[in-house]
Specification:
Elements (H helix, E strand, L loop, with lengths): L2 E2 L12 E10 L3 E2 L6 E9 L4 E7 H7 L8 E5 L2 E4 L11 E4 L5 E4 L24 H4 L10 E2 L1 E3 L6 H9 L3 E14 L3 E3 L4 E9 L5 E7 L1 H4 L1 H11 L4 E11 L5 E3 L5 E4 L4 H12 L1 H6 L36 E10 L8 E5 L5 E2 L7 E3 L4 E3 L1 E12 L4 E7 H8 L3 H10 L7 H7 L4 E11 L4 E12 L18 E2 L6 E3 L22
Length: 510
């Protein structure tokens, strides 16, 4: 006897079941990262709005190509049920299904008098733009955080440990719903010439992000967005699922290999945002937000501190060991003889301790690759309570120095000259900045310390009331005691290439 059940009632041991579901999302077929199989992900939702991921492989993808359609309702029976992996983030369900050839998948037609199709879906688990900075450190967030972590082991030297800290990369995978303000042309990014297209997104609070569509996302969905924007008077709204947000270059937002994008989806939340965008189109298009960067590649969102709690420099040491902090301070480069750039692998973005740009065999990428320069240096933050040092890198650093990483490398490494920073000192003089910082912890078996990285900065609009003492004593290295520490390691996720750390694709078993 076949048992009629909902998704939550189905486990690996459940036999002879049938479930009524609707396809609420379907991705394009993808090749696994290890190149061993082709797979396709779909998201199913039952009558109780419970959702689960289903996976099809090469032969099944072809078999189901004409049968499975978005927002259609089906009766699925006895799919293979597997346990979802949780080491790479919080899945939508504790299990996932594998659809195979022998699978029964009967579509329910609108004319069916016994089984009626499910109504249009309403369940969305979207992440608002103003929550994104806090998700970097909120491991209990509903969408879950996928952080590339390496446990500190005795075999790591202090130098390697410090390197891991200075190049930490936080990655989360989120669903977003946003208005499209602008769609750029298809282009090639960086030395690796990966194809991409950038679009400017906005929410109903005027927070903006530059969103990079990599490879076929720029060609297919990006082309669709550009075409509709050219022929439609109203602004578009997109729903992006499994979008990558990382802290590699501030807060960057981009597609990953199994993301999905839909234009003007028929969800109540999307319809409400579309209507809001219609009413506020003039305001959105004529009032550029100060909360976004205008860089030509994956750019961080600059978050104003108007609604954030500011702390003083002296209070940073007592702040939580990991988190996003907001300060108002002057900035200065007191160490003019530091290295202002590093070399990293053009593929995995791993920092290399060398100044030689010759090709090499990268053990992480497992291929011959080149080294590319990346701007990275230390800057001092000063207020009337103390002085501390934070790192600033990539596009934020290039913007501050008014130089590209290539120019910096040519001056400091090729020509072996010191950078002229007079223009930077003049630009920073007697100015106060609203600064968003990330505090990260690292350590060894004996000590635990913390470092600060600048996520964004913006000049404060009114002049400072007092002049701070640039020679004030620096605070001691931030120390944390009796805390179990995990150090983040460098991974992909830059403006030049899609991230390389991805949840593994389920391996098909024969």
């Amino acid at each position: 006897m076949v048992l009629r059940v909902n998704i939550d009632q189905i486990e690996p041991a459940t036999r002879d079941w049938i479930c009524k579901v609707q396809i609420v999302e379907i991705a394009r077929p993808r090749e696994s990262l290890d190149k061993k199989c082709t797979f396709q992900n779909i998201i199913l939702e039952d009558e109780q709005e419970c959702q689960i991921k289903a996976v099809m492989y090469a032969e099944e993808i072809e078999q189901y190509a004409d049968r499975l359609k978005l927002l259609h309702t089906y009766l699925i029976s006895t799919a293979r049920v597997k346990v979802s992996q949780t080491s790479y983030g919080k899945p939508i369900h504790k299990f996932y299904w594998i659809l195979e050839k022998k699978q029964d998948g009967e579509e329910i037609k609108p004319s069916n008098e016994v089984e009626k199709p499910l109504p249009p879906p309403t369940k969305l688990n979207i992440t608002s733009f103003d929550r994104i900075p806090h998700l970097m450190v909120d491991s209990a967030a509903e969408i879950g955080i996928s952080i590339v972590l390496a446990t500190i082991r005795l075999k790591y030297t202090s130098a390697l440990l410090q390197d891991s800290c200075n190049n930490s990369l936080y990655i989360i995978y989120a669903d977003i719903l946003a208005i499209v303000l602008h769609c750029g042309p298809q282009k090639n990014a960086g030395r690796s010439h990966h194809r991409c297209r950038e679009i400017t997104l906005c929410d109903n609070q005027k927070n903006q992000f530059l969103f990079t569509l990599w490879e076929d996302f720029g060609e297919i969905e990006g082309h669709e967005i550009a075409s509709k924007m050219a022929t439609t008077a109203d602004l578009l709204v997109i729903l992006g699922r499994s979008i990558e947000i990382s802290t590699y270059q501030g807060l960057s937002l981009q597609t990953r290999y199994n993301s999905t994008l839909r234009v003007n989806p028929n969800y109540p939340q999307a319809v409400a945002l579309i209507n809001w965008a219609k009413e506020n189109k003039t305001m959105l298009l004529t009032c550029p937000s100060e909360k976004t960067s205008t860089s030509s590649s994956v750019a961080p969102m600059i978050v104003t501190t108007a609604c954030q709690q500011l702390i003083s420099i002296a209070e940073i040491s007592s702040a939580p060991s990991m988190g996003v902090l907001y300060v108002e301070a002057e900035m200065a480069i007191l160490d003019e003889f530091q290295d202002f750039c590093v070399l990293q692998c053009s593929g995995c973005k791993q920092k290399k301790r060398t100044k030689d740009r010759k090709d090499f065999e990268c053990p992480k990428c497992n291929r011959k690759t080149t080294l590319v320069p990346r701007c990275s240096f230390q800057i001092d933050l000063i207020d009337n309570t103390a002085t501390t040092t934070a790192s600033i890198s990539a596009e934020l650093g290039e913007k501050l120095l008014s130089m590209t990483a290539e120019d910096i490398f040519d001056i400091t490494c090729t020509k072996r000259q010191s950078l002229s920073l007079n223009h930077v000192h003049e630009m920073l003089s007697n100015k106060v900045f609203e600064i968003q910082l990330r505090k990260s912890s690292w350590g060894s078996s004996n000590t635990t310390q913390a470092t600060l990285s600048i996520l964004s900065y913006m000049e404060k609009q009114h002049p400072p009331q007092t002049t701070t003492d640039r020679t004030s004593k620096k605070i001691k290295p931030l120390e944390i005691s009796e805390v179990e520490v995990m150090a983040t390691t460098t991974a992909a996720g830059s403006s030049n290439a899609p991230a390389k750390f991805e949840p593994p694709t389920p391996t098909k078993k024969v």
